[in-house]
Amino acid sequence: MSDVIISEYQPGDEERMAEIAPRAFGVWARYGIDYSLPRDKVEQEYREEALHYAAQVREGHPGMAIFTAKLEGFLVGYIVVRLDEYRTQRFGMKWGNLQSLAVDPDYHHRGIGKALVARAMQWFRDQGCEYVEVITDQNNIAAIRTYEGAGFRTIYCSLTLSQHLS
Ligand SMILES: CC(C)(COP(=O)(O)OP(=O)(O)OC[C@H]1O[C@@H](n2cnc3c(N)ncnc32)[C@H](O)[C@@H]1OP(=O)(O)O)[C@@H](O)C(=O)NCCC(=O)NCCS
Fold it and tell me: Which atom in ligand 1 lies closest to the alpha carbon of residue 143?
């Protein structure tokens, strides 16, 4: 297999992003892990989230970028990064958010997530960020290892509780 190529989002990439998102997040993420939610809606939520990020970048949303990972031209993962103007002002340091990261499950554990995060960290440095935050789930060991490998350290955990009312 050829090496992974990390590049900036190109119009048209959203098609594969929207395929990957429900498959990647449908297993691990907050809605994906809650099997009391309708599966089709959960998948639609992640698909639309990916499409929304891509639309924002296409429209030139300031302080935002998407990087993709491609193998022989085939998109296998993406990462979404953005600057957080509100927190930059509040805390007096340029604040970046690593917004979303997904790798096609068929291509997990091959260093693609690591390569995408490395590219994202370069982007944050290029933007002059002094602080970068990423939020993930306590059960998401793959994500935690990927982020820790890039220098992040856990600083806070929270719980989400819910109930269905009849
Ligand atoms: C998190 C994710 C992006 C990692 O992508 P990946 O390409 O498989 O990761 P890599 O191969 O680069 O591995 C990065 C690290 O994670 C570890 N890892 C990968 N998959 C793992 C798994 N299933 N269980 C435990 N560790 C795992 C690797 O061992 C490596 O750590 P190491 O360097 O300490 O050995 C991928 O699992 C994914 O898309 N998950 C679903 C979406 C998601 O949870 N996104 C993050 C939400 S914030």
Answer: 1
